[in-house]
Design brief:
Oligomer: single chain
Radius of gyration: 21 Å
Shape: globular
Number of domains: 2
Strand content: 15-25%
CATH topology of the largest domain: Rossmann fold
Distance between the termini: 30 Å
Helix content: 25-40%
Number of strands: 20
Number of helices: 13
């Protein structure tokens, strides 16, 4: 058997998952270019030398309150390695910990609990800081509409803080191009009406993986009105390390991060003729709700899958189906089964779709995907099903993570 190791179970698992394939199959691993994990000294240097803004200490001097917004547990950003430096700089400017609040930018995702916070922030911060989940339906202020017609509702606690700081991972996103920057504000700490309008515009053609998109421009206009004084943008390694940090103005620092991101996440596109494409959803594999990210690379790259290929997603889905109050729950404003999406109809005229995960069931699969989906909780059972479709000879490409960009 051919064995391929893939990262697995972000935040929960410490060991890789082993995919096995028949010896008669031609299996190609297609990893990101990746990067080295930088040191604590390099992190601090990046934060002390911002792009386009004064330092945190200069911004905070004479101010009384500060809000630090971080991305949630569905993202692998190691905030425990970054926040101690930010907190120290705020304290150095005269803002006490009692006057700081850490706001969890959950957007329409589930609230985070103490166990999540310890993983993401480290126990010393969890035990000493005021930490709040954002609520997309409550504690909001209305600031008018954007030029695109998006109503602007934002977290009141964040809006009223004297100093506004955000920390987020810059990873590929089908609607915003790449995450990070202003996206920590919208959707992170915005109201559900703002989320719905902005996402709806993206779904209607404002997306584009790896680029400055229509949705991104709307987000940045809105963030300019709301305010974001200091933005920390993190480029991740495939294993959740920090390949680079760009801090400062939320647009300038984000654009610099994008430049490195396109290198670190860059992936060589396989030659045409792939029978089976295996797309692993790590590090966005805590819940099935994030599974749509598996289409990112396929939609952004040149055609390399055969017309009758199988597209196979693999995901730990450690938290099961997951939760998203805007796009995933029955009755949610933008919920749709992917079978009814134009992208699905374009991709799967003759192709097969398969999903492997040990932590979800048929009902979970059919909530998001059509009845024709090939689903197993056992990897060897999946291989058997693939053999029935493709026989003893197949070209297989394995993409080990969801943060891949075609070179």
């Amino acid at each position: 058997m051919v064995k391929i190791q893939i990262p697995w179970g972000a935040w929960y698992e410490t060991e890789d998952f082993t995919l096995t394939f028949p010896d008669s199959w031609n299996v190609e691993l297609c990893p990101i270019r990746d990067g080295a994990d930088i040191s604590a000294t390099e992190i601090q240097e990046s934060l002390l030398n911002p792009l386009g803004t004064p330092t945190i200490r200069e911004l905070a001097t004479g101010k009384r309150t500060a809000a630090i917004v971080i991305d949630d547990i569905s993202r692998l950003t190691p905030c425990d390695r970054i926040l101690p430096f930010l907190i120290a700089e705020l304290e150095g400017a005269g803002i006490s910990k009692e006057n700081m609040v850490i706001i969890l930018a959950v957007g329409a995702h589930r609230p985070m609990i103490r166990a999540d916070l310890i993983k993401k922030l480290g126990q010393p911060i969890v035990d000493t800081m005021n930490i709040q989940n954002h609520h997309p339906y409550e504690n909001l202020v209305y600031l008018g509409d954007s030029s695109a017609g998006t109503p602007i509702y934002v977290n009141k606690t964040y809006y009223e803080a004297d100093v506004k700081i955000a920390v987020g991972g810059v990873i590929p996103h089908p609607l915003a191009g790449l995450g990070g920057g202003a996206k920590i504000v919208l959707p992170g700490v915005s109201g559900i009406e703002t989320l719905a309008a902005n996402h709806r515009a993206g779904l209607e053609g404002g997306g584009g993986l790896g680029y400055v998109t229509k949705m991104r421009l709307d987000v940045e206009e809105i963030t300019e009105k709301i305010g974001l004084d200091f933005s920390v943008n993190v480029i991740l390694t495939m294993r959740g390390g920090i390949a680079g940090i760009f801090a400062g103005h939320f647009i300038e620092a984000h654009r610099k991060a994008m430049e490195l991101g396109k290198i670190v996440y860059g992936t060589k596109v396989p030659v045409q003729g792939i029978d089976i494409g295996v797309f692993n959803l790590y590090p966005e594999d805590t819940e099935m709700d994030q599974a749509m990210k598996g289409f990112n690379f396929i939609l952004a790259s040149k055609k390399f899958l055969k017309n009758d290929a199988t597209i196979l997603f693999t995901s730990a889905c450690t938290e099961g189906r997951g939760y998203h109050s805007l796009i995933s729950e029955p009755g949610a404003k933008l919920y749709i089964n992917w079978e009814n999406h134009v992208i699905w109809k374009a991709l799967f005229r003759k192709r097969h779709f398969a999903f492997f995960s040990p932590n979800i069931n048929e009902a979970d699969i059919h909530h998001f995907f059509p009845k024709s989906t090939i689903f197993t909780q056992d990897w060897q059972e999946m291989v058997t099903k693939l053999l029935e479709i493709h026989g003893e000879t197949a070209n297989v490409a394995v993409f080990p993570c969801s943060i891949q960009l075609p070179e």
